[in-house]
Structure formats: C-alpha cells, structure tokens
Amino acid sequence: MARIVTFSFKDNVAAEAVIEAVDILQDTGHPMTIQEFAQVAERLGSIMGASATPQVLMARPTAWCTCKYKVTRATGKVTPRFGWLVCKTCNKPAEVVVRNWMGNLVNSVMGNNLLQALRDKLAADRATEDDEDPQEILDKFDQGADGVTTKPAGEG
Ligand SMILES: [Zn+2]
User: Fold this and answer.
1) pTM (2 decimals)?
2) For residue 58, what are the β-bridge partners?
3) How large is the average pLDDT for residues 24-51?
4) What percentage of the chain has pLDDT greater than the value 90?
5) Would you say residue 151 lies in a domain?
6) Where residue 42 falls among pLDDT bands split at 50, 70, 90?
7) Are residues 18 and 152 in contact, defined by beta-carbon separation less than 8 angstroms?
8) pLDDT at 118
C-alpha cells in the first residue's frame, strides 16, 4: 500500500519547480555533490513551504485480488477507511483497478495529467543547454518561482 498526496499551488511556476526539483533529486543518471543535492532540496522545501497547500491524502493499493472470482460491486465490499471496492475474501481491489489507479483518478475529475508534458519540456530545455551545471538549475529556481526566492536580495 502506498499514499497519494495532492498539493495545490496558486503559482504555476512554483508547481512546476517542485516537479523539476524532485525529478533532479531522484535522477540517478545525473549525480550531484552532496552540497548541490542539499541546495536543491532546500529550495524544494522553501517552495513547498511557501506555495503548496495539501489537498488530498489517499491510500493507493499496490496489491490486487488473485482469487477465483472478479471483484465487482455485487461480489465485493467497500472498505470503510480507504473507500476501496475490494474482494470480500482477500480484501484487495481488482487488478485492473490497481493497475489503472492514477489514470482513473485523473479521469474522474475530467482533467488532463500535465506531468509528462512538463517532463518532456524540461528534458527538451536540458537538451538544448550547452552545460548541465547544477548551479544553473539552482539559479533557475531563484528566477522562477515568484515570491519564494531563497537567496538574499542582491546575491546571484
Ligand atoms: Zn480476493
């Protein structure tokens, strides 16, 4: 079992900067020094603290029913805490529900998930840069998210 957390941001730039920072911190293909990692993590925390409003905390299933019968409204039950439709025998949702969890979540509110488009744009931006200096990425954070600059005025 896992969790899904949704934050809202009034500032689109801040929202995108958070995604970029998390991707940078988790990208094992581009190693950073501990200091660079700490700088990106600090800015991530600053942007989150200044701009993010927690909206949703949901449990996300990671295992599914492998029993003989399909989990349906008729054959299953809804769990009181998580609100999942699960098998009455093993207490797990249907495989199709688990595999399509995020897509169904996004589709349920008739919205498009913009995450991949943002990542494609960021990758294209990185590909056109001559130098992938992590300091340039840090500088971009300082220029990008309005009102959440972490450097003192006059620096950088
Ligand atoms: Zn089952």
Assistant:
1) 0.73
2) 4
3) 93
4) 64
5) no
6) very high
7) no
8) 94
Q: 94 C-alpha vs ligand 1 centroid, how far in Å?
A: 8
- In this structure, is residue 32 part of a structural domain? yes
CA 117–ligand 1 middle distance (angstroms): 37
Structural domains counted in the chain: 1
Instruction: Determine contact, residues 33/137, Cβ cutoff 8 Å.
Output: no
Tell how far the Cα of 102 is from the centroid of ligand 1, in angstroms.
21
90 Cα to the center of ligand 1, angstroms? 4
CA of 101 to the centre of ligand 1 (A): 18
- Residue 55 lies in domain: 2-144
Continuous H helices in the chain: 12-26, 34-51, 95-99, 101-107, 115-128, 134-144
54 pLDDT higher than 60 = yes
Q: How far is the CA of 62 from the centre of ligand 1 (A)?
A: 14
Return the higher-pLDDT residue of 147 and 127: 127
Where do we find the tokens 């009181």? 80
Q: How many Å lie between the centroid of ligand 1 and the Cα of residue 80? A: 17
100 C-alpha to center of ligand 1: Å? 18
Q: Is residue 55 part of a domain?
A: yes
